[in-house]
Design brief:
By secondary structure, this protein is of the alpha/beta class. Helices cover 25% and strands 21% of the residues.
Length: 452
């Protein structure tokens, strides 16, 4: 049994915890080719304080349901990392769209549908050993959601918070975390959230401080600028981190619950003239990346390959870089811009950072010549976290062949032929020995523990 977390003097009042480094992973990254393929076992268990698994959805009965054929297998693999690092916390992100609309529109429409979803959430999280939920609704009062959903979202969050409090008290388990991905654009924040109220009832809010600009615009602009630029005007005037976060704070958000978004990708443009600076004419996205294969953005490991031969420039007024070659333009983040953002984040006493996503950093260390996870490792160091352990001895045996098992092996899960109730995890040459739950044995065919 876990301990029950303190929740303050009244139901629904959540305490602000220490600085967080929250990292998202996506279940569609497994379909990228070759070294772009990413799954739960590629995660460094000591890199982040929290990992959010994206994405689950909601069925017609208002219940959480997986979206990929192997989600439950990946849940096991992700949550087994807590055997290696017991301090790691995992969350399941729920939402997305169904037929172009958020399923949360139907959830918040009635007390009955909210109750059904909340009960389903608690059961699903406990069954799969997650520590909390991440609500991914983009956005209340937008994209087919009526204006009344702004208030309904507040009521929904309050009801969910109370249910999590009661469930922890009744079961004497650690209270589930309640979090949300929230908008960064000022007009969307105003139309979607009762900021002070939701701030009281969420453990933290991931402000999506990226996608401020992209190929849908007719001029180049940076994906995640720290400040506004001299070319920003009209509706783009507040499309920057400084304007977004200060607006959240002015509306009454608890700064300790706001997490600043750090993207591990860049937004691309196809230049339509010989001009190639910030604000240059553009007519769509550059060519798709060979691994992400989606118009309009490149992962950091695709960007760093591009910058080997491209012209790289620094936007001093926004403290972010961009790169150009021929008619391709990409605004992205690097270690220097991450450092500037951490300094800004600390100045405003925010609760920490969230990364979108682990699978778009150079997670394998194969592309950027800076080792695995160069951006997220730099972010971790810039935030002042203690150094990660370089190795973890096997918890159930001290035989030398076990501790050296992973030497020269690729990262991943492996059977232990000497004991079928255990299995090895290899990460960066380190060996971790996990034990299956009583009655189960490790099956290499599914990379999971199952009944014999």
């Amino acid at each position: 049994m876990g301990r029950i977390l303190k929740i303050g003097s009244s139901v629904g009042k959540r305490e602000v915890s220490s600085t967080k480094l929250v990292c998202h992973m996506t279940n569609w990254a497994q379909y990228r080719p070759s070294t772009g393929k990413f799954m739960s076992h590629n995660i460094d268990p000591f890199l982040c304080t929290h990992v959010i698994y994206s994405l689950a959805t909601i069925n017609n009965f208002h219940q959480i349901t997986p979206t990929e054929w192997n989600d439950e297998q990946q849940y096991k693999s992700l949550n087994n990392l807590k055997n290696v690092n017991p301090a790691l916390r995992t969350l399941l992100s729920v939402g997305g769209t169904v037929n172009g609309f958020s399923p949360f529109i139907a959830i918040v429409a009635s007390p009955e549908s909210r109750i059904a979803f909340i009960r389903s959430t608690i059961s699903f999280l406990r069954t799969h050993n997650f520590d909390g939920v991440n609500l991914d609704w983009q956005f209340p009062g937008q994209n087919g959601s009526p204006a009344t959903d702004k208030r309904r979202f507040t009521e929904f969050v309050m009801e969910m918070d109370k249910a999590f409090v009661n469930e922890a008290r009744d079961t004497r388990q650690t209270q589930l975390l309640l979090t949300a991905n929230v908008a960064s654009l000022v007009p969307t924040v105003d139309s979607s959230y009762e900021v002070r109220n939701i701030s009281d009832h969420l453990d933290f809010m991931n402000v999506m401080t990226y996608d401020f600009h992209g190929h849908w615009e007719a001029e180049t602009g940076h994906n995640s600028p720290l400040y506004r630029s001299s070319v920003d005007s009209g509706s783009q005037f507040n499309n920057n981190i400084n304007s977004s976060i200060t607006h959240w704070l002015a509306l009454g958000a608890n700064p300790g619950k706001l997490l600043l978004g750090f993207p591990t990708y860049g937004r691309t443009y196809h230049l339509s003239s010989s001009t190639n600076g910030l604000g240059a004419p553009a007519d769509g996205p550059a060519g798709t990346g060979p691994y992400t294969r989606t118009a309009g953005f490149w992962s950091y490991y695709e960007v760093c390959t591009f910058t080997n031969s491209a012209d790289v420039e620094w936007i001093a007024e926004q403290e972010v870089p961009y790169a150009t070659q021929s008619n391709a333009w990409v605004g992205y983040d690097d270690k220097r811009s991450f450092s500037a953002k951490v300094e800004w984040m600390n100045r405003f006493s925010l609760g920490g950072a969230h990364v979108w996503t682990l699978d778009m950093d150079d997670f394998s260390g194969s592309f950027c010549s800076n080792g695995p996870y160069p951006l997220v490792n730099h972010l971790r160091n810039a935030m002042g976290f203690a150094p990660k352990p370089t190795t973890t001895p096997s918890p159930t045996t001290t035989r030398d062949p076990v501790t050296s098992f992973c030497a020269g092996r690729p990262d991943g899960l492996y059977e232990n032929v000497a004991d079928k109730t255990t299995y090895f995890q290899c990460f960066l040459g380190n060996t971790y020995l996990h034990k299956c739950q009583p009655g189960l044995i490790y099956m290499d065919s599914c990379k999971c523990c199952d009944w014999p």
